[in-house]
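To illustrate the input format used throughout this study, we show a single complete record. The first block contains the structure-token representation of the backbone; no residue identities are included at this stage. The design step must infer an amino acid for every position from geometry alone.
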């Protein structure tokens, strides 16, 4: 089996100018990530920075009694290890929420590129701001909205950060993410399944009617989405319009269309033909 994928399947890397991307391309390592794997251990130095392409990961915060909470998710729109690039040295624990693939690069190499104060740094800082919005809005949503609305938000956000319409997640994983009881997630999922919006079977969720989810979701989904588009689409488009590889009006329009597609509809069929990678833990 072959996978058609490249680092450009991550929308952050796809937005880099050709020259910047070329400098980094040879340092990326293709990795497979399995659910429950920790790609960063909490309070330890960051060795690798991960750019998911089809996997979804989440920062995990734990307390002394062993309980944990996940306040955000990151997929093909972003990357991990940002605290290290900003000088923090360590990162919260990062766990794989949904299986898939991605690319990793040594932290010291990416940090050198970050310190060039080029387009990567601009993108990274915009991503941090968008991620903070997601975390804050998720906290508001988990406090004030019912489980069905929270579940719809979570499913839509997960679909935005992966490819296709299928998600490999258990009710237990989703319950941890939302900070609710597993039984509450099961009841909400059953209601959505009865409405024909999703089908759930043994940790596998298929979304049939995205519009049905949008009818039931709270405003938190659009708040976060608009902020991601503003920071990782609008500003990026403005920069590309000034410095993009195509000149003139037509060039600006072409670049604007390309950047819009990066956030809204990643093309996971493009890229290089490569063999499936081993689990990152064995590489």
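Output of the design step:
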């Amino acid at each position: 089996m072959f996978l058609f994928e490249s680092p450009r399947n991550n929308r952050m890397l796809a937005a880099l100018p050709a020259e910047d991307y070329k400098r980094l391309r040879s340092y990326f390592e293709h990795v497979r990530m399995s659910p429950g794997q920790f790609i960063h251990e909490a309070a330890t130095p960051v060795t690798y920075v991960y750019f998911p392409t089809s996997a979804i990961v989440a920062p995990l915060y734990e307390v002394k009694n062993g309980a944990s909470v996940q306040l955000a998710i990151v997929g093909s729109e972003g990357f991990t290890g940002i605290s290290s690039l900003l000088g923090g040295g360590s990162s919260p624990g990062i766990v794989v929420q949904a299986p898939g693939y991605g690319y990793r690069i040594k932290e010291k190499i990416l940090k050198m590129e970050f310190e060039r104060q080029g387009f990567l740094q601009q993108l990274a800082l915009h991503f941090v701001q968008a991620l903070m919005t997601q975390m804050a809005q998720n906290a508001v949503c988990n406090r004030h909205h019912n489980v069905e609305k929270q579940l719809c938000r979570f499913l839509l956000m997960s679909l935005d950060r992966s490819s296709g319409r299928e998600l490999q997640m258990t009710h237990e994983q989703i319950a941890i993410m939302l900070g609710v009881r597993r039984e509450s997630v099961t009841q909400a999922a059953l209601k959505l399944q009865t409405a024909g919006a999703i089908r759930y079977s043994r940790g596998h969720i298929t979304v049939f009617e995205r519009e049905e989810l949008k009818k039931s979701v709270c405003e938190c989904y659009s708040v976060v989405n608009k902020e991601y588009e503003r920071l990782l689409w609008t500003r990026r488009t403005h920069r590309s319009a000034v410095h993009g590889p195509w000149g003139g009006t037509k060039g600006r329009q072409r670049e604007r269309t390309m950047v819009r597609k990066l956030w809204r509809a990643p093309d996971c069929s493009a890229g290089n033909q490569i063999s499936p990678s081993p689990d990152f833990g064995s590489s």
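Structural context for interpreting the output: The radius of gyration is 19 Å. The longest strand covers residues 56-62.
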